[in-house]
């Protein structure tokens, strides 16, 4: 029996702006990445998201991003490794405060958007992020792009590290995600999306946009909660994975 975690970025509403059907999506995922106020989210949204995730038995992780609400954290910024370290510690601490009020432990940390992609290729930044996670708690799981500098940094420090793959993104020959600035960055066909996940989990590779096989490890699969058909897709991918003898469960069950 194969095993994989199914994670989703949640808590990304802000003030009067509502994004996604997170309460319903929580029925189908095993780990929730909760925005911590830099790229999205606010204190009230964070608390409500934590409360809902606990009620559904979904494990909770911090989703730290760059301080860019207007760009949803998807625009790269020039930051030093020390600044990256400080941003991650700060945002983990914000979410940890809410978890403590519910007596719940944090499972993981997954950087968001541009910070995630920057860390995937930047060794110094990835090591700073991994160190930030370790210094807060060496028991936390670090989520990073499969085979990236971030997962390497986590493993080097001795963190439990989850290699992450994406259900709705295309890949380049070097294992990186196709930039969202390109028209072919997203996989919009649901069947194609799920089939590529099953292949990654069971066979350990993805076919790149250059028609090459990229070997990778799939510990956790990311689905996005802000799409038009996000809820229907969450249900579809969960059911399909289980039909393919893939056990869907969180790391700290």
TrEMBL record:
UniProt keywords (A-Z) are: ATP-binding, Hydrolase, Nucleotide-binding
Q: Name one Pfam family in it.
A: LamB_YcsF
Q: Which CDD domains match?
A: LamB_YcsF_like (cd10787)
Q: Which InterPro entries match?
A: Glyco_hydro/deAcase_b/a-brl (IPR011330), LamB/YcsF/PxpA-like (IPR005501)
Q: Which reaction does it catalyse?
A: 5-oxo-L-proline + ATP + 2 H2O = L-glutamate + ADP + phosphate + H(+)
Instruction: Supply the name of the protein.
Output: 5-oxoprolinase subunit A
Q: Which family does it belong to?
A: Belongs to the LamB/PxpA family.
Cite the EC number.
3.5.2.9
Protein purpose: Catalyzes the cleavage of 5-oxoproline to form L-glutamate coupled to the hydrolysis of ATP to ADP and inorganic phosphate.
- Species annotation: Viridibacillus arvi
Annotated GO molecular function terms are: 5-oxoprolinase (ATP-hydrolyzing) activity; ATP binding
Q: Subunit structure, per the record?
A: Forms a complex composed of PxpA, PxpB and PxpC.
SUPFAM superfamilies per the UniProt record, alphabetical:
Glycoside hydrolase/deacetylase
What superkingdom heads the lineage?
Answer: Bacteria
Q: Name one GO biological process term.
A: carbohydrate metabolic process
């Amino acid at each position: 029996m194969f095993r994989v975690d199914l994670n989703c970025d949640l808590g990304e509403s802000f003030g009067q702006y509502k994004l996604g059907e997170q309460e319903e999506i929580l029925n189908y995922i095993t780990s929730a990445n909760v925005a911590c106020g830099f790229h999205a989210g606010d204190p009230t949204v964070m608390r409500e998201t934590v409360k809902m995730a606990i009620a559904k038995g979904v494990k909770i992780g911090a989703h730290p991003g760059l301080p860019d609400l207007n760009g949803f954290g998807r625009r790269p910024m020039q930051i030093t490794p020390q600044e990256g370290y400080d941003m991650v510690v700060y945002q983990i601490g914000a979410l940890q405060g809410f978890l403590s009020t519910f007596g719940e432990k944090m499972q993981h940390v997954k950087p968001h958007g541009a910070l995630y992609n920057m860390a995937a290729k930047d060794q110094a930044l990835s090591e700073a992020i991994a160190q930030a996670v370790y210094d807060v708690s060496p028991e936390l799981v670090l989520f990073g792009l499969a085979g990236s500098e971030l997962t390497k940094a986590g493993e080097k420090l001795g963190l439990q590290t989850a290699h992450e793959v994406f259900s709705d993104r295309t890949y380049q020959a070097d294992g990186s995600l196709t930039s969202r600035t390109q028209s072919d960055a997203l996989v919009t066909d649901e069947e194609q999306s799920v089939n590529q996940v099953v292949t990654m989990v069971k066979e350990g590779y993805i076919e790149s946009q250059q028609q090459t096989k990229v070997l990778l490890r799939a510990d956790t699969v990311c689905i996005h909660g802000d799409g038009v058909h996000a809820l229907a897709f969450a249900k579809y991918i969960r059911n399909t994975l289980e039909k393919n003898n893939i056990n869907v469960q969180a790391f700290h069950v």
